[in-house]
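We modelled the chain as a single entity of 69 amino acids. Its sequence is:
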Amino acid sequence: MDILYMLVPLSLVLVFVAVAIFLLMNRSGQFDDMEGPAYRILMDDDSPRPEAPQEPRDPRDPVVRRSAF
């Protein structure tokens, strides 16, 4: 029975800490958009990527060929 004098206040402190952490995370915007990132994974990006501008090569430079491996 004496253990209840320690466990009840300890459990109340843990509940208050958990609620405080939840409120801080909620205030910072952690839970604003729960479905957006999940849908973003499934969406295809149909628009082509813009290509990087090509720098003019010096004709004296050797041609570097990259292997397919």
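As a brief sanity check on the tokenised model: Residues 16 and 64 are 64 Å apart (CA to CA). The two ends are 71 Å apart (CA to CA).
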